[in-house]
Amino acid sequence: MGFIHWMVIFALIGIGSQSSASSEITVSIFTVTSKSMTVQWSRCSGASSYKITATSKNSLDASAFAQFGANSVMGSINSLTPNNMYIIRAEAMDNSLNVLSQAEVEETTASEVPTINMATSKQSESMTVEFTQVSGATSYILRAETADMSFFYETEVSSSPGTVLNLQAYTDYTLSVMSINSGGRSQPSLPVVAKTVVAAPKLNSTSLSNDTIVVGWEPVDHVFLYTISIIMEGSDSRVKLNTTDTSVTFSGLEAGTTYCIKGNAWDPEKRQGDDFTVCQITRPCIPVLTELEVRMVGSEAGLSVSWAPSQGAGEYLAFSSEGLNCTSTTGTCTLAPVGCGQRHTVTVTAINEGGPSIPSAPEEFITFPCPPEPLRVEETKAGNCSVLWDAIPYTDTYVAFIKRDDGQEERCNTSSTSCNYHCQCGYTYLMTVFAFSLAGSSPPGPVLNYTTLPCCPEDVFISLASPGTLEIMWSAVRGAEVYETRAVEGSEVILCNDTAPVCALSDLTCNSPYSVVVIPCNEIRGCNHTCRSHTKETAPCMPEILNVTQINTTSVNVSFSTPNRAGTTYKVSVVAQDNRNTCTSRGTSCEILDLPCGKVYEVSAIATTTVGDSFPSYSIPLETAPCCPATFNVEQVTQAMTNVTWSMARGTHTYMTSLTSPKGTARCHTLDTHCLMGCITCGTNYTVSMEAISRTGHMSECTYHGFSSSACCPSGVKLYRMANNTLRVYWRSTGGLHNYTAKMVGSQSNYTCTPPPGGNTCEVPEIMCGDVYNVVVAPLTQDGAMVQFCPQRMYSVSCSGSNVGMVIYRGKRSLD
Fold it and tell me: In whole angstroms, how far apart are CA 168 and each of 126, 141, 157, 164?
């Protein structure tokens, strides 16, 4: 029973057990063949049987029907026409054969069953089947299977013949064919048994030399003979041989030529099996080297190798004894990188798919020399330099390039290992050396950077910035990055480092000669210690004021220390706010004269040499005696008191004024410029003196012209009436020949009278009566002025008619 039939049975069982009754029947086609259809329907309630009818739609053929029991839901209807459209009706009927429900479906039967005419095998993995084509078929199914069912394979083809693939070599297969249309596939045709041919030998070829090819293969099952043929590419001459071996050698072939080898196997039935073709090229001829030379490949040096082309060569391999190789499809390639001073033995081998040729005859080549190194410089003396290097193998000559950092360049050609050149101070020289041979120049070697010592400053100028500091200036020199200025005096060394061409050396020992040298330095070479030194003496040491001695009020003697070498001049300065006095000496003291009074001075000294001046000594104060007042005046304000005034005196703080007579001394001590002095005796000559005293107690004795006090005021002044309207003034004389004046002052008139010296009366005529008079009698001063401090007496002078009447004393009155 076929596979499809079992499927239908299992489907019917499954459907029958799973269907449930419905009031309406449905129908569908399960499968078709050329002359039958398998129909499937649903159960209908109350149906006792089902009738299936197939009616041709396109012909007048009689209908075919089949009837099934109540429990059936699938069944086949037979005796149909191939490739024909049918209307399939399913009817559910009760026991009285009444139709309870019906349904229809249309379907086409499969095409007719084809017939196999012939099955042949020309390839071990396929079988070609020729069959009759049937009407209505759209395609065909070819089926191949083995007798033991270990292999089953179907493939669809469009027409005859068709080929079944994926078969095994030398194997029997049962072949059948089925037609296909829209309805499905037909039943298989009657089977045909056929055997595939043996497989082809899998040829492997190799060329062991440039005139032989060896072909080998693995034994093929069921083969009793092999046929191997060879033909040169582009030729129609073929060589064929039969063998039962599994290898064949073809010799006497052309070098570098492609040959195609085909192999067939024969089975015991003398059927030729598959063929297998392999193409093999013989190895190329031996190349011939033509040229070796060094060339640059980018930034690297390479050895260019050239050769004559070889027949059939697809590629060439150049090989060096130094382990370098290069490949090319043309007649040249470059071995890179090559090093300097190398001895290369070079061969070239031609290569194609057949293998390599025998290497060419070896050629030797020596590459360019190595760059000289290490480089070193010797400077035998300033300005004479030599660059030296070690000898380099395979070198004929050397060229040294010496370039100065300002762009100046010189070249030296030599066969020795050194070159001399002029090297100036303060420059950097870049040096490199090339070696030359027949192979060319060495690559650039190391560049030696050599810097000469910086140059010495020539215009060093040293000046005394201050008594303890030397300022050194110079022009910047080539090659110097920093300057070390050194000042040496005995064991004392003072250093200054700076990048500027100026330096100040401080805190130096005074009055000492220093050896000063400016040493230029740079980071590369260090310092140039060959520069000449310069001697510069520092300023003299500072003297000290030891003592200031007052010679008189306007002169002093100043003594001082002398800490410097002999020949040093010392200058002493006495300085006030508005004037300066000086003296010089090479000894230990000097005098300063004509100092103004009342001044405060600062006394200091400096030492002077041709180098300069020392620091001023510490100063000490000096105060001259205060000045005496330029003007001095004594004025008597009362008989016993005077007012003394004077002008301001410079430097004076207080004034002590004295009036001295044999009768005693009057003194006044004041801060002011005036003083009232009492206890003055009238009519006495006084000596006038003053002491001007400074704030610090310095004193000046000042002497002025003497002072004489006025005569004493008279006492007992009386006024008497005389005849003829005359009044007499009387007073008691103090003795001596003093001059007196009497004065009467009334409201309407004034009167005076003066007696001769020594007199004590005088008369005033023509007195106006009826008035009150103030009467005063006072001595006269030396200049004739009347003393103003004598007391007045008041008298009333009445009239008696037109004449003076009574004179009445009314009392004393002080001066206003």
Answer: 8, 20, 20, 11
